[in-house]
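Data availability (excerpt). The following record was deposited with the supplementary files.
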Amino acid sequence: MAKISLPDEEYLLPGHLACAGCGSAITLRHLLKTLGSDIVLVVPASCWAVLAGSYPRTTFKVTTYLTTFASAAAEASAIRHALDTQSKTDAEVVVWAGDGATYDIGFAAVSAAAERNENILYVCNDNEAYMNTGNQRSSGTPRGAWSTTTPEGALKATNKKDMIEIMRAHGILYIATCAAGSYQMIKDFYSKITRAKTIQGFRYIQILGPCVPGWRYGSEKTVEMARLAVESNYFPLLEIVEGRYRVTHLPRKKIPVAEFLKAQGRFDFLKDGDIQRIQDEVDKRWQYFLNKASET
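Predicted structure:
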């Protein structure tokens, strides 16, 4: 396997306030290393609106704009137009948002920016709940997952909203999923972010962000959580370029989704029948992506 030529410069500095083993700290570090310094990072209400530190100090070594839950995509669009009027067209405007600001509270602004094909890179740090405020359920929370807003005896009974297909329906030029669970996955990560940089218009990247307190696993197991999610097909790695699907990682040996679910406390309440239902849904979605990729 060819080696990745990783940039030496670091743009997420030591001293941030993320939990030990924070999955999004790993992925944000790699995202910033790939994008470089000539960016404006737009961060709505989320863990990273807090974890970077208090003004005037910050662990972000890039220009950063903090905004409200609902308006990140709209404000990123405005920043893009302001830079363009100053002929600063090389600067990249990047939204780093959680699934709460993407799937729910900020969804209208995300959809509108995608429909207008605004020239921004929108990244969803997908940790599957409102983690900064204590693991409340979002529409990005998967079926059967426990959260702090779960009524006793009533786990989430609906599937996670499919943002990949929603973004595809907007007709945008580039969509991808990324994770940081192995060297091969990091190589895939860098390749996709690098490709996204070369495309003009609205681009959507969904990055799996394992969360130690929210998912309820040991802090030393974050990379393993991401690996299990991908290798079980729970979180497929793919990209959609101008409507054409490509699966970018085929597991060498299929891992039952139960291995991923049982490694986390948030799924402790599932029964065998519940796990089988989730397995069936994972298999169906995986086959859908394989079929779409074979069409192109």
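Summary of structural features: The longest strand covers residues 92-98.
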